[in-house]
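User: Hi! I have a protein structure encoded as tokens and I'd like to know what sequence might fold into it. I'm fairly new to this, so please keep things simple.
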């Protein structure tokens, strides 16, 4: 989906843009040509745009320059290889040539969309898990306190009441600056956004200085993109440099947070939820009611409650509360606003059957790392008096090393694990399931393991297993959360875990009492149900 563009803007001349980034000019064409927008996707070019033709892992953008020209691009930004390709294809557009075009896109986009002088208060959130949740908590609390907020993240971009479904967690710099310009145009005062490690590595937030940068935690993910955990950490740490932020708020519950404090280039405030750990802000959880906690720091105490289920949401809520304080909100206002349930789509989202007559708890969650699977299941365990059943798979063409860990976490905590497909993308789905199962089998536990390729059938099997476990059983369908499609071999089939789970509950309602047919085996023996891979909804 194309990003919104600001309604009106002055054009920048190609000459000033060339000077800004010290580019060489490839043709003798008119340097006073006006540029009114910028994109790196030939399919999104609008008349007057600068088309950034970037080298990529799969293609070189210059090979799509003719398409960009046909759509009305006024000029091209590219590298030497791209310039060569433009000549070969006889694309007659003026071209700015730089060594690393991606690295100058932030500055160019900021100039073109006039976002260099930022009037928005910017909050950026990074970390492996909890970015989306914390972003919703901060932005919805700010809205309760009367702010005009914007939100950019995995699920959507929100500008006032407008909601635009996201393609990626953090938009490319070209789209980001256009979105920020639209937010300014609509009098937004604060923008809360998720900043992924891909974004930090790929210059997507260049030209943005966050008033406050948050770090939630770091655990294994994205090792298909980053060489190792150190490299992944270094990408995240870039947010905590003067280039990108004024100050930080770091959760020091894990070692990466503690290391970040040491290497941060900007002043940081620290927070911990661990008992007896030291930080500027500490959290003491109420033993009777674990969603309640006391937040202490700066000589003050706040009695707070997490409006979202799950122990890990205490950390997210505490981070959001301290962020609000650092943004200048009063303690009373923070206590009031933080109680608001922001409804984070697909995160611990409860699903009920149409009749809502269930005696089991069914949730859809976005856990897709070993750490998140563990956190999500540990959070559900106390609510389980029957059987805890989890449905999970792992994404294809993404970090392969996390699959076993996800399986291990699932088998370590759930009574029954239904291993299924997530987004197989270009990979053989059965080999992804095999890796998850391998991890699950490595755990010394008595949990039942079932392999069901088709995600719809897997969800139904999980509901059946949970019913079999009696009242107080819990079904958790994790990994896809808010997603509304399943990507198999380049095709995205409509698929929504929440709808599927509801349908499974309804179907099970219809055959109430009929459950109980054999199905699961123990950890030593896996039942495989062959089902059609296709899961079109
Ligand atoms: C690894 C990664 O992030 N790759 C991104 C990168 O791809 P790339 O540089 O290899 O580009 P490419 O596909 O070879 O194409 C080269 C150029 O040709 C352009 N092109 C291509 C085809 C065409 O018809 N027209 C056209 O102009 C492309 O826009 C690109 O500029 O630049 C592309 C253009 O913007 C992105 O689409 C692509 O995101 C891929 C699809 C992706 O899946 N990224 C994910 C992993 C990602 O970014 N995830 C993070 C983290 C998620 C989280 O943890 O929350 C996120 O922020 O979403
Ligand atoms: N603070 C946390 N610690 C550990 N696990 C968490 C935490 N917050 C959320 N989770 C788990 O991680 C999942 C993803 O949470 P969320 O979407 O908020 O994170 P994210 O960082 O935005 O993830 P992504 O990078 O995929 O967008 C949740 O569904 C939950 O299972
Ligand atoms: N933002 C995450 C999403 C993963 C979700 C999971 N459903 C998958 O497809 O792997 C990523 O880009 O790794
Ligand atoms: Mg997210």
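Assistant: Happy to help. Inverse folding works backwards from shape to sequence: for each of the 537 positions I chose a residue that suits the local structure. Here it is:
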């Amino acid at each position: 989906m194309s990003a919104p563009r600001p309604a009106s803007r002055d054009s920048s001349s190609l000459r000033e843009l060339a000077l800004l980034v010290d580019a060489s000019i490839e043709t003798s064409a008119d340097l006073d040509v006006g540029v009114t927008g910028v994109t790196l996707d030939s399919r999104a070019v609008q008349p007057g745009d600068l088309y950034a033709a970037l080298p990529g892992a799969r293609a070189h953008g210059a090979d799509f320059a003719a398409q960009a020209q046909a759509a009305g691009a006024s000029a091209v930004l590219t590298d030497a290889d791209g310039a060569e390709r433009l000549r070969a294809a006889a694309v007659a557009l003026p071209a700015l040539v730089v060594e690393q075009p991606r690295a100058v896109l932030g500055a160019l986009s900021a100039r073109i969309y006039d976002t260099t002088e930022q009037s928005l208060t910017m909050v950026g959130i990074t970390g492996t898990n909890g970015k989306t949740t914390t972003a919703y908590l901060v932005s919805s609390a700010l809205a309760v306190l009367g702010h005009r907020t914007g939100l950019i993240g995995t699920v959507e971009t929100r500008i006032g009441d407008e909601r635009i479904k996201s393609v990626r967690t953090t938009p490319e710099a070209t789209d980001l600056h256009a979105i920020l310009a639209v937010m300014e145009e609509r009098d937004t005062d604060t923008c809360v956004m998720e900043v992924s490690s891909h974004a930090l590595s790929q210059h997507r937030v260049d030209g943005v200085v966050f008033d406050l940068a948050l770090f939630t935690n770091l655990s294994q993910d994205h090792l298909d993109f980053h060489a190792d955990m150190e490299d992944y950490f270094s990408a995240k740490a870039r947010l905590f440099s003067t280039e990108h932020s004024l100050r930080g708020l770091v959760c020091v519950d894990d070692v990466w947070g503690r290391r970040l404090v040491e290497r941060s280039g900007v002043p940081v405030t620290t927070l911990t939820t661990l008992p007896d750990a030291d930080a500027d802000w500490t959290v003491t959880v109420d033993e009777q009611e674990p969603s309640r906690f006391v937040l202490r720091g700066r000589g003050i105490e706040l009695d707070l409650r997490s409006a979202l289920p799950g122990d890990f949401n205490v950390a997210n809520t505490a981070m959001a509360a301290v962020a609000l304080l650092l943004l200048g909100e009063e303690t009373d206002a923070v206590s009031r606003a933080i109680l608001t349930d922001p409804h984070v789509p697909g995160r611990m989202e409860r699903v009920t059957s149409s009749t809502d007559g269930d005696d089991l708890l069914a949730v859809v969650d976005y856990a897709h790392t070993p750490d998140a699977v563990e956190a999500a299941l540990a959070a559900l365990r106390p609510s389980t008096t029957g059987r805890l059943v989890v449905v999970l798979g792992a994404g294809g063409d993404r970090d392969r090393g996390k699959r076993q860990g996800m399986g291990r976490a699932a088998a370590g905590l759930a009574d029954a694990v239904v291993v299924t497909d997530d987004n197989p993308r270009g990979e053989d789905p059965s080999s992804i399931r095999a890796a998850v199962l391998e991890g699950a089998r490595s755990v010394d536990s008595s949990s039942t393991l079932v392999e069901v390729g088709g995600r719809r059938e897997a969800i139904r099997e999980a509901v059946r297993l949970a019913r079999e476990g009696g009242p107080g059983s819990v079904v958790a369908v994790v990994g896809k959360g808010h997603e509304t499609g399943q990507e198999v071999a380049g095709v995205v089939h409509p698929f929504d875990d929440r709808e599927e789970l509801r349908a499974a509950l309804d179907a099970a309602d219809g055959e109430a009492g009929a459950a109980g047919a054999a199905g699961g085996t123990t950890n030593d023996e896996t039942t495989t149900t062959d089902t059609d891979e296709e899961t079109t909804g």
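A useful reference point when you look it over: The domain at 121-337 is CATH 3.40.1190.10 (UDP-N-acetylmuramoyl-L-alanine:D-glutamate ligase). Feel free to ask if any position seems puzzling.
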